[in-house]
Amino acid sequence: MEMPEKGRLSLSQFTFTIYKTQVGIAVLSIAREVGQYAGRDSWISILIGWLITMVFSLLIINIMKKHPDKTLFDILPIYFGKWLGGAFTLVWAAYGLYASFSTFYATLFLIQVWILPNTPTFSLYVLFLIPVYMLCRHGIIAIGHYSDFVYLFCSWMPMLLLFSVHDAHWLNLLPIAAEGWLPIITGVQSTLPPFLGFEMAFILYPYLQEKKKATKGVLIASTLSMMVYLLVIILANIIFSDKEIQTWIWPTLALLKPIQFAFLERLEILFLSFYTIIQLMTVIPYLYLALRGLTQLTRKSAYHPLLLFMVAAIAVSSLFVDMTNERIERFLDWLSHAGLVMAFGFVAFLWTVSQLRHLIQRRRAM
Amino acid sequence: MKRWCHAILVCLSLLTLTGCGDQLYLENADIPLSVGLDMDDEGNIIVVYSSPVFHEEASKKTHFEQSTALSFRQNRKLLNSQSQGNVIAGKIQNLIISKQMLKRINAFPILDVIFRDPKSEINARALVVDGSLEDLQNISMEDKGRLGIAIRDTIDAAHQVSSTVLTRVIDFRGQMLDNRVTPYLTEMRIRGQDYAITGTALLNKDGKYATSLDQNESSLLLLLQHQTEYPLQLPFTAPLQLPFTTPPNMAPSDPTMSQMNVSLTINRYKISSDYAQGRFHFEFQVDLTANLSERTFPFDMKTERRKLEQVIEKQLQQKLERLIAKIQHHRLDPMGLGRVAQAYHYPIWKQVQNNWPETLAKADIRVTPHVTIKSYGITF
């Protein structure tokens, strides 16, 4: 089933959509989360995490290559039949919904803590849901265009972090792997969730103009994300001591806070305001993914009502659910686990199935 | 129809905006620029602050407030009830901690609210004051402007001529949490109606006051820390062995006739380290470029320059080693040698990390400065 989409995605839109879905809320806390296992060797963990992500992105492209005009939700029934395929579709839709909801909650919580403590939650939710609604309504092409915009508009943000470098202690990075490789390997597990978002290739692939470049696209996307994470981790490690990183909930914002220009103070507010633009680029694709799955199960025309329902559900939920530090932590924790299962576990599983199927088909043909 | 829908949606969302709901008039805000912390005899925390007054009718430009409670935040509540407006902590320029308090307790836990609240200004300069904080009110501001700004500017200026370290509140936090370094803060003295930066206060690992460095020692500490933001200004005394001629009618031993001042910049800075026979060995190898800024004795720079360089090298070495001995004596490590120990001697570091200042006190620390006089201004 083809959605009523006009036009196709360019390579840059394909790449940036994946890249911006990956770089989400995790960039603010990644230094602490990886650091609690790997300490000053976090940067090695992130490199290993990056390699793993690239392998799994290639697996996705490998699966999609066999069905160039189909999305994940078209493939699932082919592989698993109507019922099991439908069940998997539902699981994926639930995952997408959970990812977009929890990222949205976390973003808004962050904004409330740092910038707008006095603004009522409900009105904030409504305001931020307007762009979510508008972009999701226009489907994947609009999201692709938005990702181009986000990339251009926010590419200065990692550079800003470099201003914090002037009282750095490079010695903090030594000695390398002093405690052996076990902590580094343990640290890898928390470097994988920040790379979540590459599974968006499942949806984006059929819309890509030049399918041959898909491999290039996913690799560039993960590499761009890796570079951002690497920068944040190295900066946090050379500026803060091991112990201090663990005392900040969002070490990246703590890096920004001391930066001051003669004409500008509290840079982290500016940063966070722009950061919401990036954040929405995580919320929107996941919501879109979920809605695509749900419409697959019902019918095409259900897309718009479902979108309205979801947006309304988020807004209304703000009236009933009070966000606290721990709740957000727990939400994001579950999301990491779910992501590991869906984007890494399921992709490996699906790839094995598709390889087997391919093999059997070829046998039969002979 | 569609257009109407959009218009209504936009209007509805605009209605939810708070707009000027939580506006704040500057006249009604009490914005402390300088905050002081002290402790009374019962162990309560005294908070003193000075904030600018924007009311047109008020004749005084600065407003002082003081309260006593068990914590910083409780004090803020008290202060709120005393002051005319809402106390806004986001613009604090300096945080003054009294030396008496630091001698008794570790002040770091008290500062928690500053780091917990994202609105607070963590770039505020942290300093130690010798003297009672109540004297802050007596400082005559007629020729200075706002107290908080004036103190901040004085600290920054003193740091530029290397008379003191520059530790922001956020840096102080890092120093307290890092067991590879001990904290160092700017030290100020209030005397009568005036204040002056006297150098650097060193705290031990428990966050208590340990000792003070004067302005020259502070310059030397900056050298050991490799703080090369600004050139280091240091005075030297020419020894009598130097082939200089004294002006007639002056005894060569006259101290004012044998002074020189140089400003030093670090060219190469290297710490080599070793662990042998149960103790650490550190050697600072520093190549410095000197610019002669003052010399009160006649001297032939063209032919004898190297001799002058040697004098500077020797005195510098003596002064640095005296400073290091003082630091070791007080069981401190403001140089952050713990970072070197951790980076290059990790297995041993792991054993001694909880007892680092003690270990460093037993270490053998040497300095070998190498000085080149690059220029001596526009006169010989």
Automatic annotation (TrEMBL), chain A:
Main localisation: membrane
Keyword annotations: Germination, Membrane, Transmembrane, Transmembrane helix, Transport
Location in or out of the cell: Membrane
Keyword Zinc (UniProt): no
InterPro entries, A to Z: Spore_GerAB (IPR004761)
Keyword presence, Transmembrane: yes
NCBIfam families listed in its UniProt record: 2A0309
UniProt family annotation: Belongs to the amino acid-polyamine-organocation (APC) superfamily. Spore germination protein (SGP) (TC 2.A.3.9) family.
Protein name: Spore germination protein (Amino acid permease)
TrEMBL record, chain B:
Protein name: Ger(X)C family germination protein
Domain of life: Bacteria
Family annotation (NCBIfam families): spore_ger_x_C (TIGR02887)
Lineage, top ranks: Bacteria, Bacillati, Bacillota, Bacilli, Bacillales
Membrane-topology annotation of the record: Lipid-anchor
Signal sequence, renumbered to the chain: 1-21
Family: Belongs to the GerABKC lipoprotein family.
Record keywords: Germination, Lipoprotein, Membrane, Palmitate, Signal
Cellular location(s): Membrane
